Amino acid sequence: MKKVITYGTYDLLHRGHIMLLKRAREMGDYLVVGLSSDAFNAGKNKKAFYSYEERKLVLEAVRYVDEVIPEHRWEQKENDIREHGIEVFVMGDDWHGKFDHVKHLCQVVYLPRTEGVSTTQIKAQLRVTENSNVECGE
Ligand code: C2G
Questions:
Q1: Does this model's pTM top 0.85?
Q2: From the CA of 39, how far away is ligand 1's center (Å)?
Q3: 110: which of 8, 91, 96, 122 is 20 to 30 A away, CA to CA?
């Protein structure tokens, strides 16, 4: 069984996340997702809308995901790869080159990001909508 791993925050799940997970899963037979813990996100200066437990529940419902493990530290990736017998490490290409240090353990693949969508954009659009509703007295 060819096992694949990827990591991320996966907050406010959108098509960019799904397309990444789909392509990653198609590179093997089993996909493990290292899901950023709330504390780890704080270290990435990211505040997810949903808690780790909520994001894990949603991610485990995605057909392409076979297992979700917590991502607590940048340095855990080599150990994860060894412990889970990972053959392919996949990330979006906004991370291009950032994880080449695990190339001695497994294949490292950076996939093109899905254009036109991001959690940051979604949050910004929601704020605009909310503000316009308030102005209209809704
Ligand atoms: N992604 C994508 N297209 C988008 C948005 C995101 O392909 N429009 C990909 C990212 O490249 C990443 C994955 O979806 O591979 C998850 O994205 P985030 O939840 O934003 O994860 P990130 O904060 O980049 O955390 O140790 C690695 C980090 O945990 C990655």
A1: yes
A2: 17
A3: 122
